[in-house]
Description:
This protein is of the alpha/beta class. The protein folds into 2 domains: 29-211, Rossmann fold; 213-342, Rossmann fold, CATH 3.40.50.1980. The chain is built from 12 helices and 15 strands. The strands form 4 sheets. Strands 10, 11, 12, 13, 14 and 15 form a 6-stranded mixed β-sheet that branches. A 4-stranded parallel β-sheet has the order 5-4-8-9. A 3-stranded antiparallel β-sheet has the order 1-2-3, covered by helices on one side. β8 (142-145), α5 and β9 form a beta-alpha-beta unit. The chain is globular and about 60 Å long.
Amino acid sequence: MTPRTSVRRTVAGLVLVSLAATACGDDDTTATTATTATTATTATTRTADDGFPLTFTNCDRPFTLDAPPQRVLLMEAAAPSLLFAAGAMDRVVARIEDFPEEYYTADEMAVLDAIPALQAEATSTGGVEVSLEAIIEYEPDLVIGYDTETITHDALANVGIQLYVMPPFCDSPPMPSFDSIVEEVRFYGTMFGTTDVAEASAAALADTVATAQGAPVAAGKTAAALYVSSDGSAIYAYSALGMVHPQMEALGMTNVFAELGERVPEVSIEEVIGRNPEILILLYDDTGLTPDEIAALVTELPGASGITAVADGAVYPVLFNFSEPPTPLVVTGLSVIADQITG
Length: 343
């Protein structure tokens, strides 16, 4: 299995590289990319006192909402974090993917478990497919996720349903940054008419990031963020174009693979050894393996013991959505990584 990002295109990172699908766009990660990232949902126009019709651009396509969506179908495991932050989870009537409990609180999981799940089939790239008939049955007015072979803007529009593609899954995704996450939460507040809740959540997210940046737990350390296939057959390294890069910077690390031209290209263990990072972050989404088993996929490779991170025991497995794609879960991921580093 190759890197995923939730079932769409190779977008938010290596892991995005497979499950996600093949969105190209390069991302960087710094607060300065915020403006670019906000293009996620650009050109918002309000033409009525209540903000609707609401017109904006989604994946370079014009998009208009005549009113706040009332019946939403979710496709992506990280998407609920945006709806929770915006105070709009009560609009969700169905879901396609499973939502791993590691990402959500007990109360949030109770909400998610109560949402009907559509029958889906796995694709060869790590994504899922569902029939249009199954979607139509729940009568959503909006689908949030990504496009697939059957779930496309045109196919859904033909039956009166709109598809909002999460910006990281666009063919040309915006630069990933913490500011892009904050702005997307604010946008959801605008889209669902829940601006007060969304603004409070956005402010809290920004404060959490600022706190982490103000006291970096790995200041001066070199690091590499890798995605390892669950069978150990391939290793991928994240460049400055993945959301995990801004995380590393926020925590004080220098990404030894930052200059690579692709978001998450395949690399050899020899390349990792040669760059000799002091910290290894291993992104994974195979919850059938324990963190120790994930770590062993790298630490037991020939020559890996010579990597400073391995020798020092500074190898930290992190569930995929805590670093990719850019959503509020990535802000939580700062604490997940920091807690491992500080022991």
